[in-house]
Amino acid sequence: MPDERMRHSLSEGAPIVDAAPQYLSLQPKKNTVLVSHGRPPWYGEDGKRTCDAYVVAVSGGSGSGKTHVARQIIQSLGSIPTVIILSQDSFYKHHNEEELALAHANMLDFDHPDAIDMPMFAACLADLKACKQSNIPVYSFSEHQRLEEKKYLYGATIIITEGIMALHDPALRALYDLKVFVQCDSDLMLARRLQRDVKERGRSVDGILDQYLRFVKPSYDNFVRPTSSHADIIVPGSNNAVAIELISAHIRRQLQERANQFRQRLALPHRYLNGRSGASTLECRLEDLDLKVLPQTPQLQGIYTILRSKTTSRQDFVFFVDRLSTILVEHALQYLPYAPKTVITPVGVESHGQKSDAKNMCGVSILRSGGALERGFRRVINDVPVGSLLVQSDAKTGEPLLLHVMLPQCVRLRHLAEESWVFLLDAQIGTAAAAFMAIRVLLDHGVREDRIVFVTFLVARGGGVSVLRRVFPRVTIVCGAVDDQMREGWLEGVQGEGNPEGIGRKVWVMQPGMGQIGDRYYL
Q1: For residue 422, which of 386, 468, 471 has the smallest C-alpha distance?
Q2: Neighbours of 488 (CB within 10 A)
Q3: Which of 125, 53, 132 is nearest to 88 (CA)?
Q4: Where is the signal peptide (predicted)?
Q5: What is the pLDDT of residues 260-289, one digit of tens each?
Q6: What is the rounded CA–CA span in Å between residue 137 and residue 48?
Q7: Contact 42/131 with Cβ under 8 angstroms?
Q8: Which of 303, 386, 418, 443 is in Cβ range 3.0-4.6 Å of 363 for a Cys bridge?
Q9: What confidence tier does 57 reach under pLDDT thresholds 50, 70, 90?
């Protein structure tokens, strides 16, 4: 989870744009995640997935420059959503003792299709393409073995797979949106392989040449080169700038066609949904929204009076926010499942009560303002993991962007996610754009809708909560207060759509609200 200094540097509603792409290495020069300006919505107003991740396959002989071509495509794309480069080398099969001995003697054929676990590769790629998480194997070239650990991947808009057999298996080819074959001179491929294996994998020249003549060259002639007939485009292994630009232009066009913008319809649903629902959202009763609102006691009303005041000092604001978040989480606990429990007191009397029946439990805060509930959450539930999601607004469109995902282990593993209860923490539900995205992320990981408890300080009755409740009716929303209106305004100094002069971009503010909660809490 980002530390406090990172949170302090993030401004609510302001996007984070990397000045230069950053590569987070998952396996040296192979599986990488390129972090760019974030992942836009991959779902519609109904909460259902509207588009898959765009998958590009890059195949070719060993040393043809497949990884280099993949990186060139990314660099040519420029400012793009999150990209994953997925290497087929991670999916070599697990080897027994006899196979390991052959591998260390350069006598095991790693260039045959049977050396790769094609069903596992297809299953992991299918999950990533369907916007779900995947845990891919990690392969050690020095040990010639698949390791026990796995690497968690999620959130790509573009997936680039590369490998010598990337176009060989029909199940894999069915998952690709664009198929590329890198064609290269055999002498150049051998020279590149020699340089790579000596430098990166600690192999001897004699062993490399023996393996090349025994396995690599025959495999290329028999299995790899014939797959070029399946390619949509053939790219030269060097001097390929024109081909790279053509591929990048095609990908950019595909992403533009898949763009999905609907935050304004969430912010002011009564302008767009009257004809569908039959009644204005502003006329909806709280009972219709099924919100779990705290009892409006004098203590609670006093806390909100202090928090809404612009003259409240930061010290007092932090104190009462922590107090309010503690009350909210305590109230939210009643929506967990419980089982009867009987204990014997020290005087020998039976006492009947209940204990939590939730197998796995965790918290997930929507940064930055959601972090204001974490201290109260830990006061009440101090022995469960807490993860985070960073959802910020695009500078031009105002649409939500997913910039950071760090989820607890019980959510990252799908078989555990199905049995987990997740407390989703955010300061308010206004347009509900961040809430929409956060819930969709949890559902993509396999968390059941009825096991998500959304804990928040404020909800705007006239905002996007009515759409959120209609789309995700089984999510429990626990809030401290409900404000009636969302006011439409402009964020000055930011050039956005419909504002070519840079007057600002459209924003929606809850009234009366509590101001910029993240700024008031952390700054």
Answers
A1: 386
A2: 12
A3: 125
A4: none
A5: 777 777 766 655 555 444 444 444 566 678
A6: 29
A7: yes
A8: 386
A9: very high
Structure tokens at 374: 């974490």
Largest CA distance in the chain: 87
Work out the percent of the chain whose per-residue pLDDT is above 70: 84
Distance from C-alpha of 126 to C-alpha of 153, rounded to nearest angstrom: 12
Answer left, alpha or beta for residue 156, where phi above 0 means left and psi between -120 and 50 means alpha: beta
Determine contact, residues 503/494, Cβ cutoff 8 Å: no
Beta carbons within 8 Å of 231's beta carbon, 6+ residues apart: 59, 167, 179, 180, 181
Q: Are the C-beta atoms of 219 and 112 separated by less than 8 Å?
A: yes
- Residue 514 to residue 383: CA distance in whole angstroms: 30
CATH class name, domain 23-258: alpha beta
Instruction: Write phi, then psi, for 372 (nearest 5 degrees).
Output: -65, -15
User: Which element (helix H / strand E) includes 72?
Assistant: helix 66-77
Q: Which amino acid is at 499?
A: N
Tell me the angle at which helices 241-258 and 66-77 cross, rounded to the nearest 10 degrees: 50
Query: Residue ranges of the domains in the chain?
Result: 23-258, 263-338+355-483
First to last CA, the chain: 19
Contact criterion met (CB below 8 Å) for 512 and 488: no
CB-hemisphere CA count at 13 Å for 456? 29
β-pairing, 452-460 vs 428-429, is parallel
Residue (of 476, 478, 401, 474) closest to 441 by Cα position: 401
CA distance 163 to 110: 12
CA–CA gap between residue 499 and residue 137 (Å, rounded): 47
Check for a shared fold between 23-258 and 263-338+355-483: yes
pTM of the model: 0.82
Residue 294: pLDDT band by 50, 70, 90 thresholds?
Answer: very high
- At 208, the pLDDT band (50, 70, 90 cuts) reads confident
Tokens of 266: 């969430």
- 268: its two tokens: 């002011």
210 vs 445: CA distance, rounded Å: 45
- Cα separation, 416 vs 167, in Å, equals 33
> Could you name the CATH architecture of 263-338+355-483?
3-Layer(aba) Sandwich (3.40)
Query: Quick one: which of 110, 181, 178, 123 has its CA closest to 153?
Result: 123
For residue range 492-511, list pLDDT tens digits in order.
Answer: 554 555 555 545 566 778 88
Q: Is residue 469 a contact partner of residue 281, using CB atoms and an 8 Å limit? A: no
Tokens coding 190? 């051998």
Continuous segment of H or E residues that includes residue 343: strand 338-344
Q: How far apart are CA 454 and CA 55, in angstroms?
A: 33
Cis amide leading into 512 (omega within 30): yes
